[in-house]
């Protein structure tokens, strides 16, 4: 235990107040991050659900295209990869850094930009390709939102752990030390008061 003096008692009480203030600040920060997380997770869930629906619709159009054009024709249209100019940049939300995705060129192209004579193919193929390209565009947006959610989730867990340590370990320890020192000083004061009283009784005789 810390040496039981009034100076140490005052220092411990000040430290206890400081820890309580830190807990209050951390709880407010956690609450703000939870609100931000919930506000972000809703559009994220909707975007993922939208991607699933678009993928199902794209696959339905592609099956129709394969039926009209044949697999060999569709596979022959497959070209090399495109450089969309995807950039990963560092951004921050509530002081937390996360990776954002920006694209200089949209994945969605017009029929004339796909490198083949679209007049010789069925509308199903054009619709399927269009839908797949919009899926790519949407997935880039989802990736950025997911990165932000991950950082928020990690920080919420980290702050929660700090709060738990302060509330379950540091604060009880400080309160225990304050109580022990206060009790020791009170007992010492009582003893000194008793000794002083006895001394007066010995020095000053009763009339």
Notes on the structure:
The chain is mainly α and 207 residues long. The chain has one domain (6-203): Helix Hairpins (Orthogonal Bundle), CATH 1.10.287. It is built from three helices and two strands, in the order ααββα. It has a two-stranded antiparallel ribbon. Strand 1 and strand 2 form a beta hairpin. Helix 1 packs antiparallel against helix 3 (123-203). The longest helix is centred in the last third of the chain and has 81 residues, at 123-203. The relative contact order is 0.15. The mean pLDDT is 84.
What are the salient characteristics of this protein?
2 strands; 207 residues; two-stranded antiparallel sheet; Helix Hairpins; 8% strand
Q: What's the tally of helices?
A: 3
In whole angstroms, the N-to-C terminal distance is: 47 Å
CATH class: Mainly Alpha
Q: Which structural class matches the secondary elements?
A: mainly alpha
Helix share bin = over 70%
Spans of 5+ residues with little confidence (pLDDT < 50)?
none
The total strand number stands at: 2
Short description:
The chain is mainly α. 73% of the residues lie in helices and 8% in strands.
Strands, helices and their partners?
Elements: H1 6-69, H2 71-76, E1 86-93, E2 96-103, H3 123-203
Antiparallel strand pairs: 1-2
């Amino acid at each position: 235990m810390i040496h039981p003096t009034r100076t140490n008692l005052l220092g411990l009480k000040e430290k206890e107040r400081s820890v309580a203030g830190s807990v209050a600040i951390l709880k407010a920060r956690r609450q703000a991050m939870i609100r931000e997380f919930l506000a972000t997770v809703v559009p994220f869930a909707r975007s993922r659900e939208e991607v699933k629906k678009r993928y199902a619709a794209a696959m339905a159009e592609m099956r129709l295209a394969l039926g009209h054009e044949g697999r060999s024709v569709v596979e022959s249209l497959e070209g090399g990869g495109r450089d969309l100019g995807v950039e990963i940049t560092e951004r921050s939300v509530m002081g937390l850094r996360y990776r954002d995705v920006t694209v200089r060129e949209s994945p969605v192209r017009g029929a004339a930009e796909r490198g083949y004579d679209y007049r010789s193919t069925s509308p199903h193929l054009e619709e399927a390709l269009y839908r797949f390209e919009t899926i790519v565009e949407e997935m880039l947006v989802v990736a950025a939102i997911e990165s932000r959610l991950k950082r928020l989730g990690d920080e919420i867990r980290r702050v929660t752990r700090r709060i738990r340590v302060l509330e379950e370990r540091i604060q009880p320890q400080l309160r225990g030390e304050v109580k022990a020192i206060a009790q020791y000083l009170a007992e010492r004061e009582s003893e000194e008061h008793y000794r002083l009283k006895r001394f007066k009784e010995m020095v000053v005789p009763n009339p």
